[in-house]
From TrEMBL:
This is Phenylalanine racemase. Keywords: Phosphopantetheine, Phosphoprotein. InterPro entries: AMP-bd_C_sf (IPR045851), AMP-binding_CS (IPR020845), AMP-dep_synth/lig_dom (IPR000873), ANL_N_sf (IPR042099). PANTHER family: BETA-ALANINE-ACTIVATING ENZYME (PTHR44845:SF6), CARRIER DOMAIN-CONTAINING PROTEIN (PTHR44845). Residues 13-367 form the AMP-dependent synthetase/ligase domain. It comes from Paenibacillus nanensis. PROSITE patterns: AMP_BINDING (PS00455). Signal peptide: none annotated. It comes from the Bacteria. Coiled coil: none annotated.
Length: 512
């Protein structure tokens, strides 16, 4: 029985020590080198934090081999990694660090000046100062640490948008990732010959699953640099050059590739597993991919960050018309999903309601945030006999006549944009309360154009460029509204609050 993801890596590194684990530009790093450096790094971290375990260690590095190695090193010293977005404004990084209070933050020469504004030097570990050739590690020390780690100990913390302007740190454990990895291997056909085209940022849970595949299957991770998102032709060429067999992407880039008709010019015969999640994949563009890659197995996955990776899946096994939504399918093994109406009763077939999830896939909660945890992870209203925690996703779905779940939308102000889960309330909080640019405003998402719109009341009209510049000092690029619309008065409902529903319903009219 596996109690730690490193149980996988030990078997893999012993079995295929010379196999390439990571391809990072011109560098090909073997499993032997990866595990050797990660163990050395693990011992360095252990000394630096005086043997503390089960605590968060932050990583502030670009997505390169060093980041992957650092995350595994943190596992070796019995702690939880928390990757931070190096492109985020310093204030957002400060907010996360003040909430999570990591024991240490790993960075390099490139980013250390930014972090020194946030943390004292003794809390920062500069990886560029480590001479790995002359470092040694103690296997006895590592074994002693790992013997005290159990499967429900935290593996990682992933930060997601929070309505108060401070991101929430979702805690995910080893057992949940092990369950999902075992389900994936037994259900989807992935095997020990996978070459992963790794495009997702390191702050995504998709990246963490790619780590699982590396450790459990001996998969090779081909790092696709962040900057290539704007150059889809180059991305496809790298997939072709490295004979990539597996991708797990957010649909945004896939839609762009379809719209540019790139698959008609760049052949990808090795690509046999195509997974997508994080937002709705328009079926017209999906059908384009399926037309040119008919040798591939396509899987649509669904799950909020509070569910480890995903909780439902749909292996596309039939033709779908361009106007038919791709189902999110059925529950993964060892996870149960059900749909509740407004009275907390089970919905019938073709009746819309809120999707709820129970099982070992649930996150452990939000780090250092018991109030938010208690509000989101609640007692199952269908079970009054014993404690049973469920997560209410806030997503509206229905079960069709085939027994498949169909995603219909959100019931609140949380959106998925460019693969990130965003609280529109956080954008409003920053603009109105933190930056005090305007006294009143409301953020709305245009799902058709995939853009965030900010409506505001003000005596003066601001240029979009001015808004973007100021908001960009506090929020990452993917959270900055692209359209700003001044109104004499925002619509109100009967209790005097901004009528968000009316704004959403009249969106097309208001932006003309």
């Amino acid at each position: 029985m596996r109690t730690n993801l490193l149980d996988y890596l030990k078997v893999t590194s012993d079995k295929v020590p010379n196999k390439t684990a990571v391809i990072d530009g011109e560098r090909n790093i073997s499993f032997r080198t990866l595990t050797d450096q990660a163990k050395k790094m693990g011992c360095i971290i252990n000394r630096k934090i005086s043997g503390t375990i089960r605590k968060p260690i932050a990583v502030f590095l670009d997505k390169r081999f060093e980041l992957i190695m650092s995350d595994i090193a943190i596992m070796y010293c019995g702690n939880a990694y928390m990757n931070l977005d190096t492109k985020s404004p310093i204030q957002r990084i400060r907010n996360i660090i003040e909430l999570i209070e990591p024991e240490l933050i790993i960075t390099n020469h490139q980013h250390i000046a930014k972090l020194e504004k946030v943390l004292p030097s003794e809390k920062i570990l500069n990886i560029d100062l480590i001479d790995f050739d002359n470092e040694i590690y103690s296997q006895d020390v590592l074994d002693h640490i790992l013997n005290s780690v159990i499967d429900t100990d935290p593996l990682c913390i992933i930060n997601t948008s929070g309505s108060t302007g401070v991101p929430k740190g979702v805690v995910l454990n080893h057992r949940s990732f092990i369950d999902f990895t075992e389900w994936s291997i037994n259900t989807t056909g992935i095997d020990d010959n996978e070459v992963i085209g790794s495009l997702s940022p390191s702050v995504f849970d998709i990246y963490s699953f790619e780590l699982c595949m590396l450790m459990a299957l001996g998969s090779t991770i081909v790092i696709l640099p962040d900057g290539l998102a704007a150059f889809p032709t180059r991305i496809l060429q790298l997939l072709q050059d490295h004979h990539v067999t597996f991708i797990f992407w957010v649909p945004t880039i896939m839609v762009n590739i379809a719209n540019l008709d790139l698959l008609s010019r760049i052949q990808l015969p090795a690509l046999r597993s195509i997974w997508f999640a994080g937002e709705v994949f328009p079926t017209k563009q999906f059908n384009y991919w399926r037309k040119f890659l008919n040798q591939s197995k396509f899987i649509n996955l669904y799950g909020p960050i509070e569910i480890t990776l995903d909780c439902t899946y749909f292996i596309v096994d039939r033709e779908l018309s361009d106007d038919e939504p791709i189902p999110i399918g059925v529950a993964c093994k060892n996870t149960d999903v059900f749909i509740l109406n407004d009275q907390d009763k089970l919905c019938g077939v073709n009746e819309e309601g809120e999707l709820c999830v129970r099982g070992s896939s649930l996150a452990m909660g939000y780090y250092n945030n018991p109030e938010k945890t208690a509000a989101a992870f609640v007692q199952n209203p269908l079970n009054r006999s014993y404690p049973e925690i469920i997560y209410r996703t806030g997503d509206i779905v229905l079960e069709n006549d085939r027994g498949e779940l169909i995603f219909k939308g959100r019931k609140d102000s949380i959106i998925k944009h460019s693969g990130y889960r965003i609280e529109l309330g956080e954008i409003e909080h920053v603009i109105i309360n933190t930056l005090k640019i305007v006294e009143n405003g409301c953020a709305v998402y245009n799902h058709e154009k995939k853009e965030i719109i900010f409506y505001y009341e003000s005596n003066e009209e601001f240029q979009a460029a001015e808004f973007k510049k100021r908001v960009g000092e506090m929020l990452p690029k993917y959270m900055i509204p692209s359209v700003y619309y001044k109104m004499d008065q925002l619509p109100r409902n009967t209790n005097g609050k901004i009528d968000r529903l009316k704004l959403r319903e009249s969106l097309s009219e208001l932006i003309k």
